[in-house]
Design a protein that fits this description.
alpha+beta, seven-stranded antiparallel β-sheet, about 30% helix, about 25% strand, signal
C-alpha cells in the first residue's frame, strides 16, 4: 500500500532527523542499551500521548524494532561516540501525516561537559550542518532528503536551547521539520516535529519541548506514572 510505504519512510526520515540534532562532540551516558530501545517503557519525565492534540497515537509496535535499529545505526555515525538513550518517543497522526519524535540523554555533570554540550547545541542553527548530514545519511535511510530552506528557531526552555525550522524535499514532496535541542541540568533533550503537508503542524515544537521541560523540573517523587492510553 502506497500510504503504508510513505508512513514507514516518514518514520525512518524522522528518526534520522531527530538524531542529527545531537551535539556531535559531547560524550553522553545513559542506562538503557539501544538494543532494548524498542521494548522499553517511557519514564515519567518524557512526552506522553496526553500531551499531544487529538488524533495522535503511539507508533505501532510493529515499527518499534525497526526504529530501534535505525537509532543503533545512526548514533555512532552522527556522534562518533557510544551513544546511549534514556527515553525515545515517537507519536504519529495518520490523518495529517505528522510525526513527533524525540529522546532524552544524561550528560556528565562536570562543568566542562555541560559547557561543551551548550556550545555544540548551536550547530542545529547552521544550515551547513544539515546539508552535510543529509548527504551522509541518505545511503543509511534510503530516503533522498535535500535541505530547501533553513531558519533558526530558538526554543524558550531549559538552561540552554537551540532550534531550527527546515523545509526538506523528501518522499516526492516538501516536508516541514521543526527541530530543537535543550539542556535542563544534566539532561539533554532532543525533539522534532515533522509535517508532510503544507499546513501548520498541530503539535508545535515549543509546546512539546515545554511539556518535557516541565516534567524535568518536577521532583522525581512528584512525577506521576504515565498511563497507557489510546485515542
Amino acid at each position: 500500500m502506497k500510504t503504508s510505504k510513505i508512513f514507514k519512510r516518514s518514520l525512518a526520515l524522522m528518526s534520522a532527523i531527530t538524531l542529527v540534532t545531537i551535539p556531535t562532540h559531547t560524550n553522553l551516558h545513559a542506562a538503557t542499551p539501544l538494543s532494548q530501545l524498542g521494548q522499553q517503557a517511557a519514564s515519567p519525565a518524557t512526552l506522553r500521548l496526553e500531551d499531544l492534540p487529538a488524533g495522535f497515537e503511539e507508533v505501532p509496535s510493529a515499527y518499534k524494532p525497526q526504529l530501534a535499529a535505525y537509532v543503533s545505526q545512526f548514533a555512532p555515525l552522527l556522534t562518533k561516540q557510544n551513544l546511549q538513550i534514556n527515553d525515545y518517543f515517537v507519536y504519529v497522526n495518520r490523518n495529517t501525516l505528522e510525526v513527533v519524535s524525540g529522546f532524552t540523554t544524561t550528560i556528565p555533570s562536570q562543568p566542562l561537559s555541560l559547557l561543551r554540550f551548550d556550545a555544540n547545541l548551536r550547530q542545529v542553527e547552521q544550515p551547513q550542518y544539515w546539508q552535510q548530514l543529509f548527504a551522509k545519511l541518505q545511503p543509511q535511510i534510503g530516503v533522498a532528503a535535500n535541505l530547501l530552506e533553513h531558519q533558526p528557531n530558538r526554543l524558550n526552555v531549559g538552561n540552554s536551547s537551540a532550534g531550527a525550522t527546515l523545509e526538506i524535499g523528501a518522499l516526492n514532496q516538501r516536508a516541514q521539520v521543526d527541530v530543537g535541542s535543550f539542556r535542563r541540568g544534566n539532561v539533554g533533550v532532543f525533539t522534532a516535529v515533522m509535517s508532510l503537508n503544507h499546513t501548520t503542524p498541530q503539535a508545535s515544537l515549543q509546546d512539546v519541548a515545554t511539556k518535557v521541560d516541565q516534567r524535568l523540573l518536577q521532583p522525581k517523587t512528584n512525577r506521576s506514572t504515565p498511563v497507557s492510553s489510546t485515542r
